[in-house]
Design a protein that fits this description.
Mean pLDDT: 97
Largest sheet: 8 strands, mixed
Strand content: 15-25%
Bound molecules: (3S)-3,7-diaminoheptanoic acid, zinc ion
Helix content: 40-55%
Shape: globular
Structural class: alpha+beta
Distance between the termini: 25 Å
Length: 882
């Protein structure tokens, strides 16, 4: 828990004064008093001048002794502070022996070595290793690790660490030991240790070059039957990385451990990934389609880190997106190749816009490669991950799939075994393709979401169509001026019948016209760019930013007619969905303004008709129809408005949804009944797609106050053979007055399943029914709730703050006060989780004046707390400076 208030700056980087070649660790595990012996082979970096002391990082450690080349250092020869141990300079190389004592049972921050359900778990990224022993805890210090774990045989039968297991044996006092050797150099943030009473599901994978890899998933006893999906995901990931990128696994075993107490989703420690149970455990009756999907992508993500992150790692934490943006891109591609590329793309874009665009427009806006931070854990952000992935995707869009692969190959050829920078990655992409990517570097430097203003003019006489594209990026904190970016802008043109027109630019020869020339990636570099297409027979409707070719906001004045036309005809699934989304968003915004003027909300017949046609269109993937029918979320609308009244947003959206439900009642019901075919649950693309449309229909129908619908919801709840359908019904029931008995039943049936109870907490925390806050407060006393468990906090408290706008933003200010109290409470236990929650106050300046003042008051109250962690302080002080 560093209470640092000073910023660390990217440009202050200097190479480490000392390097570590080898690390030999011995742990004697005791819950409250673990002894850590560390033997380090340290050498002076050849560039380091003489007499520079050796400064090791260390926090919350009790130092027993330190020896240099066998000789104990006496007091006075070294100094120890809260965060550092400073030793005398080393001439060339030396062997350091350090013994520290730590208290894992008291570690509620879940960083370093801690105890979860009686098992020992580590989390070292970003700076947790320094809470285990004194070390050069920075990613550019890469060493070979050997780890020996000693522990009680009965309490800790399973002892795991990175690499390959090389020996084990029995010891005195009913203890045993296991020794692990990791043959690959790695930074300390990839170190892991797990010890406990765990059982494993095992399997194996033979790599392309014939290496046999043991696959092991470790869970608490009783959970083996929920590990099969994660195991399948691991095997699919291994195969995919070989096929798509030629990357093979490199150790004898790949191990996954699931723990219920974890600050995030999962962690890619070398050979020993630690996962939140949420991303491992699933059975059709306990997990939804979205959960199964989440497991596929998180397993893939962590597995892919073995190359993008572990073999090639980051030089410093400012380069975090080097591994995270790239690995998110890789897991998105994995999911696209395995499932529906269109669905995957739309879901990713929706998420990017709601979360990352909001971050980029608020007080925490920062470039994909930030320039400074106070607490690095606050920079595992939507920008670094999701916008970072979009930046990687743009290389692939600009260079083509093969060009991207050439760049990846060169990147590994140059940098395997090293700690490098985002510029090194860009250079590999450029050099492998002889491409000029200098200007592209601005994507790493500039924060804020670029805006593209587009105009199209058709010349009837010349049969030309001219697109003019103007780009600008709004100012963000600390970055008032922005320069034009290099942007891939994919487009198509549709004729009156909805056919794609062949595209030829004015300067191109006819020969350029090839079969697939109806979609084009235009490259924007200047503030204003003009593109004139020739031989355009009639006034076209442009299909813009196809496949969301860049993370930008598009401004083009589509008429409602044009949007309806694109909904019906666009071949590009993203652009087609986008047309529906834009149309619905425009409608919701007018409904919001109408309510503001005391006027009635009107849903035009043309809109109802367009939705009705989608519902009955058998030619589109039902999953896409479901996505098109889902109205933009309240969060999305919040971002699109100013001086926001969140309650009015909710009411406007509800009125539109109810109008659609009434107008299309018969169609929704018919589609629902057709899809509700009683088939046994299967998790495959087709079944998932059908379920998603069925449950969107159910969601609309549930808006109707109609006994028949109440019966239908009850039936689906009772008869479902899977969690997806049961939860969809319960979700709708939880919004209704007749929901209480169903909620009680669910809570009763699943009281012993922590992950299912998380869903139950979230349903109640996000319900817009009156009394939500009191229910959340009461649920904090429920035996299944614990403020120390991050999943519970996210399921109940964060869900209320981030996904229950009506009650969080209640005009009496109680929602804000509740959130502030919890942030202050959590800050003492787990600063990372508290800081995350504090970001729910980020958008306070966007609110109407009454709520704005209330929220600001709570931010000031948090900022004024004595002993506030550096984590929370950074978030709150930046929000207040907005
Ligand atoms: N690399 C980890 C995240 C670590 C977060 C540290 N606060 C998980 C991932 O991105 O795969
Ligand atoms: Zn990652």
């Amino acid at each position: 828990m560093t209470a640092t208030r000073t910023a660390i700056r990217r440009l202050d980087y200097s190479a480490p004064a000392y390097l570590i070649d080898r690390v030999d660790l011995t742990f004697e595990l005791e819950e409250t008093n673990t002894r850590v012996l560390s033997r380090l082979v340290v050498k002076r970096n050849p560039q380091t001048p003489d007499n520079v002391p050796l400064v090791l990082h260390g926090e919350e450690l009790v130092l027993e002794y330190v020896k240099v080349d066998g000789a104990p250092l006496g007091p006075g020869t070294y100094t120890q502070t809260d965060s550092q141990l400073t030793l005398p300079a080393i001439a060339d190389t030396a062997i350091l022996e350090i013994v520290t004592r730590i208290n894992p049972a008291a570690n509620t921050a879940l960083s370093g070595l801690y105890v979860s359900a009686g098992n020992f778990i580590t989390q070292c990224e970003a700076e947790g290793f320094r809470r285990i022993t004194f070390y050069l805890d920075r990613p550019d210090v890469m060493a070979k690790f050997t780890t020996t774990i000693i522990a009680d045989k009965n309490k800790y039968p399973v002892l795991l660490s990175n690499g390959n297991r090389v020996g084990s044996g029995s010891m005195d006092k009913n203890r045993h030991w296991v020794k692990w050797v990791d043959p690959f150099k790695k930074p300390s943030y990839l170190f892991a240790l797990v010890a406990g009473k765990l059982v494993s599901l095992t399997d194996s994978f033979v790599t392309a070059s014939g290496r046999n890899v043991a696959l092991e998933i470790y869970v608490e006893p009783g959970n083996i039957d929920k590990c099969h999906h994660a195991m399948a995901a691991a095997k699919k990931s291994m195969k995919w990385d070989e096929d798509r990128f030629g990357l093979e696994y490199d150790l004898d075993a790949y191990m996954i451990v699931a723990t219920a107490d974890f600050n995030m989703g999962a962690m890619e420690n070398k050979g020993l990934n630690v996962f939140n149970t949420k991303y491992v455990l699933a059975r059709p009756d306990t997990a939804t389609d979205a959960d199964f999907d989440g497991i596929d992508s998180v397993v893939a993500h962590e597995y892919f880190h073995n190359w993008t992150g572990n073999r090639v790692t980051c030089r410093d934490w400012f380069q975090l997106s080097l591994k995270e943006g790239l690995t998110v891109y890789r897991d998105q591609e994995f999911s696209s190749d395995l499932g529906s590329r269109a669905v995957q793309r739309i879901q990713n874009v929706r998420n990017l816009r709601e979360a990352q665009f909001a971050e980029d427009a608020g007080p925490q806006a920062h470039p994909v490669r930030p320039d400074e931070y106070q607490e690095i854990n606050n920079f595992y952000t939507w920008t670094v991950y999701e916008k970072g992935a979009e930046v990687v995707r743009m290389y692939a869009t600009l260079l083509g799939r093969d060009g991207f692969r050439r760049g990846m190959d060169l990147y590994f050829k140059r940098h395997d075994g090293h700690a490098v920078t985002c510029d090194d990655f860009r250079a590999a992409m450029a050099d492998a393709n002889e491409a000029d990517l200098d200007q592209f570097g601005r994507w790493y430097q500039q924060a804020g979401t670029p805006v593209l203003e587009v105009e199209g003019v058709y010349d009837d006489a010349a049969h030309t169509y001219t697109l003019t594209v103007r780009q600008h990026t709004p100012a963000t904190p600390g970055q008032p001026e922005k320069l034009p970016l290099h942007i891939p802008f994919a487009i198509g043109l549709l004729d009156r019948r909805g056919q794609e027109l062949p595209l030829r630019l004015a300067h191109e020869p006819i020969a350029q016209l090839v079969a697939d020339s109806t979609s084009r990636v235009l490259e924007l570099r200047k503030e204003v760019e003009t593109f004139t297409f020739v031989d355009v027979p009639c006034q076209p409707v442009p299909s813009l930013l196809r496949d969301f070719s860049a993370p930008v906001k598009l401004v083009y004045g589509y008429s409602d007619d044009e949007l309806v036309f694109l909904i019906a005809h666009d071949n590009d699934a993203f652009a087609r969905w986008e047309a529906a989304n834009t149309y619905a968003s425009n409608l919701l915004k007018s409904a919001y303004h109408a309510l503001g003027h005391g006027e009635a909300v009107v849903v035009p017949p043309q809109f109802v008709e367009a939705f009705g046609k989608l519902l009955t269109n058998d030619h589109i993937d039902p999953a896409l129809v479901a996505l098109m029918l889902e109205l933009p979320s309240e969060t999305a609308l919040f971002e699109a408005l100013n001086d926001v009244d969140p309650t009015r947003i909710h009411n406007a959206r509800q009125l539109v949804k109810q109008a659609l439900a009434r107008e299309l009642r018969a169609t929704f019901l018919a589609v629902y009944q057709q899809l509700n075919d009683g088939a046994t649950y299967r998790y495959d693309g087709e079944s998932v797609a059908k379920r998603s449309l069925k449950n969107v229909c159910l969601d609309y129908l549930s808006e109707l106050d109609d006994p028949m619908i109440a019966e239908l919801l009850g039936n689906q709840y009772r008869r479902a053979d899977n969690m997806t359908d049961r939860l969809a019904a319960l979700q709708a029931l939880a919004q209704r007055n007749d929901g209480e008995t169903y909620l009680a039943d669910f809570g009763n049936v699943w009281q012993d399943d922590a992950l299912v109870m998380d869903k139950w907490f979230s349903l109640q925390a996000t319900s817009s029914r009156v009394g939500a806050l009191s229910r959340v407060q009461a649920l904090m006393q429920h035996p299944a709730f614990s403020i120390k468990n991050p999943n519970k906090v996210r399921a109940l408290i964060n869900a209320f703050c981030m996904r229950n706008p009506v009650h969080f933003h209640a005009l009496d200010g109680y929602g804000y006060a509740f959130a502030a109290d919890r942030i202050i409470e959590l800050d003492k236990l787990n600063p990372q989780i508290a800081a995350r929650m504090a970001s729910s106050f980020n958008r306070w300046t966007k609110l109407e004046p009454v709520r704005r003042t209330l929220m600001k008051g709570e931010l000031e109250r948090i900022a004024g707390e004595a002993g506030l962690s550096g984590d929370t302080f950074e978030i709150v002080s930046k929000a207040l400076a907005d």
